[in-house]
Design brief:
Elements (H helix, E strand, L loop, with lengths): L1 H21 L13 H22 L1 H9 L7 E2 L2 E2 L9 H5 L19 E4 L9 E4 L1 H19 L5 E4 L7 H10 L4 E4 L4 H11 L4 E6 L1 H9 L9 E6 L6 H9 L5 E7 L3 E6 L2 H12 L1 H7 L8 E4 L5 E5 L4 E6 L11 E10 L1 H11 L15 E7 L4 E3 L2 E3 L1 H8 L3 H6 E10 L5 E9 L10 H15 L1 H10 L4 E6 L20
Parallel strand pairs: 5-6, 5-7, 7-8, 8-9, 19-20
Antiparallel strand pairs: 1-2, 3-4, 9-10, 11-15, 12-13, 13-14, 14-15, 16-17, 18-19
């Protein structure tokens, strides 16, 4: 009886929530402070509903559970223990079962369906299916989030995400058209510059794209950036606070990130002035940084998310396992492991840490909602191992933005390790010059030592590893633009930092 009541409670709550989403003015009530206890229960109840629904109606998920001899999660009182349910991922579910069998009723609907694909930056691109209800709901949430950050004043959006079949380009275009002027150009620097020059400074622009491209964009002198009201929304990968500082210095007014995953949903959480202020305080306050971080290395991105929409849990290895709690998805995802490292912190827990460390709340921008924080460290497999230290591309990026010559001349980088005949490893960092720049007058050894010095401060594990290895086990190579491993890089997809 308890399971049935929770199931129908979730179903009724889903109908109630859909009613709220019908009216744009009512969406804000979904984020009213003081309801996190209810949101957390709703999250588990709706995840349980998705589990039961998928188990009954999705052939692939039924087979997935049968293979693991799993029937039902336990209950703690009225709360379903969703963590009992085995997690799925791309390897054990997406690649194993065809797309039809992963859809409700075992077939892809014939109408109102959009296919997109992931960028393929970590291998072969994967196709995803999205239905009409999912797209409409996501568009409403994106609009609400956009207006929360930038206000309701008309905006001119320049979509610099990759166009074509990729998830971000396709869905950003469809979502933003109803509430803005929009031009989808893709990552075309010259076209974006020409658009800004032709339309002039009378508009409020928001450019959306991947961080490496946005950095390249503002490095040009064709546009007087300081004269424009231009903000950036980025996604796909992390951005260091050093890069954010650089964008501000070029005249960009605001810079926000949105957390999404083509496997799941394009807008799981987002940055705002509050989360950015917490992250920037962590950059300067070592004690706060040590208390809040769960994984060694560069600062994680910090987002706020709604538990009623996404039940976020963790694997034993600290990877994020997410259940999409929104109803009427064509291909449901129940406890999907995106293999990103992260953890959750409530506003209450954050303020308790502030009090413990004697930090006054005036040092941050106060939040507009008490939704929980999601600390996101990037992909769990996006690191290289070096003498017991795990070093990520974000560690290198954060270090680079503290070396002025690299901010000025470096376009991108790659990270890897090599092993000699005796089994000794060398950490290899390759740096590509920007187009029109060179390394001819640069001392490579000096750059190497500056990078090492920054890395030892950012990543304590690397500091210990470096103490064992010494400088001779770290290699820094300088490449001309579009040379060697950097030849024929595709700016349309997320950068490949590991080689």
């Amino acid at each position: 009886m308890k399971r049935i009541l929770v199931y129908y409670y979730a179903r009724l709550g889903g109908v109630y929530r859909e009613l709220f989403l019908t009216f744009p003015w009512a969406i804000k009530f979904l984020y009213v402070p003081g309801f996190n206890k209810l949101r957390n229960f709703n999250s588990r109840a709706r995840a349980y509903y998705q589990f039961r629904s998928a188990k009954r109606n999705v052939p692939a998920y039924k087979a997935f559970l049968e293979e693991r001899s799993f029937t039902e999660p336990r209950f703690n009182g009225w709360t379903p223990l969703i963590e009992d349910i085995p997690w799925m991922d791309k390897e054990n579910y997406i690649k194993k079962f065809d797309m039809d069998s992963r859809c409700m009723d075992g077939q892809i609907p014939e109408r109102n369906i959009i296919f997109d694909e992931s960028s393929g930056s970590s291998g072969t691109a994967t196709n995803w299916v999205r239905g009409k209800t999912e797209r409409k709901r996501n568009a409403k949430i994106i609009r609400f989030g956009f207006e929360t950050l930038f206000g309701k004043e008309p905006a001119f959006i320049l979509n610099a995400f990759a166009l074509g079949p990729w998830a971000t380009g396709v869905n950003v275009t469809m979502s933003c058209v109803p509430f803005s002027r929009l031009k989808s150009l893709g990552p075309e620097k010259t076209k974006i510059e020409n658009t800004l020059l032709q339309f002039g400074t009378n508009y409020k622009y928001v450019v959306m794209g991947y961080p490496p491209f946005l950095k390249q964009l503002v490095e040009g002198d064709s546009v007087p950036w300081q004269d424009y009201d231009i903000s950036f929304i980025f996604g796909g990968e992390s951005m260091s606070e050093g890069m954010r500082d650089f964008l501000y210095s070029r005249g960009i007014k605001k810079v926000y990130s949105s957390l999404g995953a083509s496997d799941l949903e394009l807008n799981i959480g987002s940055e705002n002035d509050f989360t950015i202020s917490v992250r920037r305080l962590m950059r300067t306050n070592d004690k706060l940084r040590a208390r809040l971080m769960r994984h060694e290395g560069a600062l994680p991105m910090i987002f706020q998310y709604n538990p009623s929409d996404f039940l976020v849990q963790n694997s034993e290895e600290g990877e994020l396992i997410i259940t999409v709690c929104r109803f009427h998805y064509v291909a449901p995802k129940v406890r999907y492991n995106i293999h990103d490292r992260g953890h959750q912190v409530t506003i209450k827990e954050l303020y308790e840490i502030f009090e413990e460390l004697g930090i006054d709340k005036s040092e941050i921008t106060l939040p507009r909602t008490d939704l929980p924080l999601l600390f996101h460290y990037g992909r769990a497999d996006m690191t290289v191992a070096f003498f017991g230290a795990n070093i990520s591309p974000v560690d290198v990026q954060e270090s680079m933005f503290e070396v002025p010559i690299l901010v000025e001349r470096c376009n991108t980088f790659q990270l890897s390790t090599s092993e000699d005949a005796t089994g000794d490893k060398t950490l290899e960092i390759r740096l590509e010059a920007k187009e029109g720049s060179s390394w001819n007058d640069v001392d490579a050894q000096e750059i190497k030592m500056e990078l090492i010095e920054r890395l030892t401060r950012i990543n304590q594990d690397f500091r210990a590893a470096y103490a064992m290895s010494g400088a001779q086990k770290v290699s820094v190579e300088l490449f001309a633009n579009n040379e060697g491993d950097f030849a024929n890089n595709d700016i349309r997809i997320k950068a490949r930092y590991l080689n």
